[in-house]
Task: inverse folding
């Protein structure tokens, strides 16, 4: 099967709403909503670094798009479409069928059509660029937080990292518990509806991809504020809560790959209910720096670093 | 040097016109021109397949963006910005300095700022997604050509392929001649101004990336027409014209990597003068298929295939 057959068979769909030209010309052509701003994000996934070679291809397709939709969610954008560039060692039709099924199911669920891309031969590499929209001036950015704002996080944190530790052999888990944290790692749910609902409410937001402390650190740096975080307030699954406390804190504070939103809002802000749990985990302070305390207010020496692709 | 230092040092620039948020948040935020359509294209470049490991990093930076701008050019779009996702085996500052210099010089020349992206560790892989604009209904597409239209090509064809043949050892060339064709391969000039000038004039367009016959074939398929092409009319450089005729035809008709525009226009259309040579190479016909003839009208058995990443 050649490159163009491959694209037609697995990735070409009829152009949808707002897509005037989709897969199959030199460019896709989209119609922006009048007055909206255009939001763009790009992520590259490499085998062995972002996913294991053993991952189910449908889950990989899901995750490749999910991590990009999560960036749109963090900015409060409405998804409009995405491109996929794919380097494959060889044409493996079973793999392509699974990958495209997982990818396009999530795309359909978010009304975010695949509009173009590229395929080539090479070491397995997935690059997705996603486009969304938000009304002018309403995108959620990292730099709008103020001292006194509360710090909130969606869903639970740490399960994806716990799954990774099981794969690494440094934690033990089996049966349903393992399947649950593995699903958290492999099938994250991007908080797209929550991000849109936070427009005009949150003062800043970011998605938790490299670990809570590191990602929150980007908000603190951009907003020039500090924070006090209660490690014991972090929302965690029953599976993670059954692990040793040190592992819970490692996974929750610095785990990464969560794709939950951490955001800030003034005290008393009316937070949206979109069916996702929201937990208050701390407060922003004028004093720079990130202070992690336990439930009694005692300082924790965390020393936890967030993930860095050239340091980890 | 960590991931974020790397981005700041080599890739972060102040946000420019129409870029409300550039590198450094979860998404870039751009302001579309009212009424314009948004055009998107994505290309992935892999070492050993799209470029040689010996390529000068500044030229690679240039080419990585040039091939994407060429897709915008083929659609008649005005560049607005791009994202870069980069997998690197290791942090090599000399390489990054050269690469970003070549990349950003071309970006500046076309007013097309780098607005975001991703960096990770992995086998060398470059993925650029480029965004542009065109007035509603004016994007140049593959499907608008009609029987009777003339077929035109910009610049010259075949030099990049000739350079590749020299690298492969199947053609011999030295000195200035080699440097000229090597520059054609490594520093293609995307025909952005020409593409925009062809809006409302050309009935279809595509850029020559996989080889003239293959790329023209996409126009014929999308427009449901055939074509008669005069192989001897193909514009070629003095360096290529000094090669054996069979090699000239191979390089010109099926070379690829040219990044010239091939477009169709009705006879008598007033073609724009943007300082790029335009050569008429044939005519569209109602009869399906692609007929290649010589200057005397005799049919050539070309049997030339265009480049396919999973067949070549």
Result:
């Amino acid at each position: 099967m050649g490159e163009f057959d491959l694209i037609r068979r697995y990735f070409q769909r009829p152009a949808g709403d707002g897509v005037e030209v989709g897969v199959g010309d030199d460019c896709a052509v989209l119609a922006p909503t009048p007055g909206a701003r255009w939001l763009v994000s790009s992520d590259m996934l490499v085998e062995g670094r972002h996913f294991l070679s053993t991952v189910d291809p449908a889950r990989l397709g899901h995750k490749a798009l999910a991590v990009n939709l999560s960036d749109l969610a963090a900015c409060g954008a409405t998804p409009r479409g995405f491109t996929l560039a794919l380097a494959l060692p060889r044409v493996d039709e079973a793999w392509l069928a699974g990958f495209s099924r997982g990818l396009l199911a999530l795309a359909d669920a978010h009304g975010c059509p695949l509009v173009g891309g590229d395929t080539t031969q090479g070491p397995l590499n997935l690059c997705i660029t996603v486009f969304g929209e938000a009304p002018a001036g309403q995108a959620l950015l990292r730099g709008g937080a103020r001292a006194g704002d509360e710090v909130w996080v969606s869903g639970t944190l740490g399960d994806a990292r716990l799954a990774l530790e099981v794969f690494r052999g440094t934690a033990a888990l089996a049966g349903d518990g393992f399947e649950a944290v593995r699903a958290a790692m492999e099938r994250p749910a991007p908080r797209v509806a929550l991000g849109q609902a936070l427009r005009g409410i949150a003062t800043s937001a970011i998605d938790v991809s490299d670990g809570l402390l590191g990602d929150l650190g980007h908000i603190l740096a951009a907003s020039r504020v500090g924070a006090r975080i209660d490690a014991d307030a972090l929302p965690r699954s029953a599976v993670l809560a059954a692990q040793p406390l040190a592992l819970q804190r490692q996974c929750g504070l610095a785990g990464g790959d969560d794709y939950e939103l951490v955001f800030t809002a003034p005290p008393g802000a009316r937070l949206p209910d979109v069916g996702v749990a929201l937990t208050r985990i701390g407060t922003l302070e004028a004093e720079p720096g990130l202070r992690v305390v336990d439930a009694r207010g005692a300082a924790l020496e965390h020393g936890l670093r967030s993930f860095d692709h050239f340091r980890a």
Notes: Chain A has a mean pLDDT of 91.
